[in-house]
């Protein structure tokens, strides 16, 4: 249990820092972060606060699909936003295309590792991933279609609100799947195995 808690906390911290790296790179971000940046532009609220509020709205959308949040879901909603805001305070704006690409690539790599850590801790999916898996479980739609549909809608709304869409957004869409396909299996905490009963040895008379 201790390993799972540490892994969850580490994964969520790195997830927030990864988001901050990609935002600071300025070459485009993931669809949900495009939405966050768009809302930030329209409202002036802090990026981390918007991330938290959007997470609460997404969890509310779990109710009609009968999806139940886990500890990891609530921890994700509570801590990723503040960790992302901390990263934005610590990481200065990036200048120069080469540096922007390097910082974005670093953020994407860290996000892949962070996703493997927090999902691998087995405390439940984050709000956005849970919405995807909940819709899949509720209506049986193919999961890739559900994910694509959700992210296209989110991306469109974020873009209309003025969120940062760039080649980084396309790179994220193409590369995050293969990355987490590598990290999640390798960082998944093994399920406890049931103790085997000792064999009963009977003596022959």
What does this structure look like?
α2 packs parallel to α7 (143-160), α3 packs antiparallel against α4 (71-90) and α3 packs parallel to α6. The chain is globular. The chain has helices at 2-25, 31-43, 47-60, 71-90, 97-120, 127-139, 143-160, 167-187. Helix content is 72%, strand content 0%. The termini are far apart. The protein is mostly helical and 205 residues long.
Short description:
This protein is mainly alpha-helical and 205 residues long. Helices cover 72% and strands 0% of the residues.
Question: Main attributes?
Answer:
205 residues; mainly alpha; 8 helices; 72% helix
Structural class: mainly alpha
Determine the number of helices (DSSP H or I, runs of at least 4 residues): 8
Spatial extent as radius of gyration: 20 Å
Could you give a short account of the major beta sheet? Answer: none
- Number of E strands: 0
Element layout with pairings:
Elements: H1 2-25, H2 31-43, H3 47-60, H4 71-90, H5 97-120, H6 127-139, H7 143-160, H8 167-187
């Amino acid at each position: 249990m201790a390993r799972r808690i540490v892994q969850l906390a580490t994964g969520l911290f790195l997830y927030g820092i990864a988001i901050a790296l990609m935002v600071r790179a300025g070459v485009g971000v993931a669809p949900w972060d495009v939405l966050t940046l768009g809302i930030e532009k329209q409202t002036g609220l802090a990026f981390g606060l918007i991330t938290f509020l959007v997470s609460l709205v997404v969890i509310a959308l779990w109710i009609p699909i009968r999806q139940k949040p886990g500890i990891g879901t609530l921890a994700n909603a509570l801590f990723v936003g503040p960790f992302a805001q901390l990263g934005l305070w610590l990481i200065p704006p990036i200048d120069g295309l080469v540096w922007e690409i390097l910082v974005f690539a670093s953020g994407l790599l860290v996000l892949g590792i962070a996703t493997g850590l927090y999902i691998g801790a087995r405390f439940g999916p984050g709000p956005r991933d849970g919405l995807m898996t909940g819709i899949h479980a509720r209506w049986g739609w193919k999961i890739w279609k559900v994910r694509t549909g959700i992210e296209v809608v989110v991306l469109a709304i974020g873009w209309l609100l003025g969120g940062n869409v760039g080649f980084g957004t396309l790179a994220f869409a193409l590369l995050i799947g293969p990355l987490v396909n590598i990290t999640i299996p390798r960082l998944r905490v093994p399920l406890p195995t049931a103790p085997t009963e000792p064999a009963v040895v009977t003596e022959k008379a």
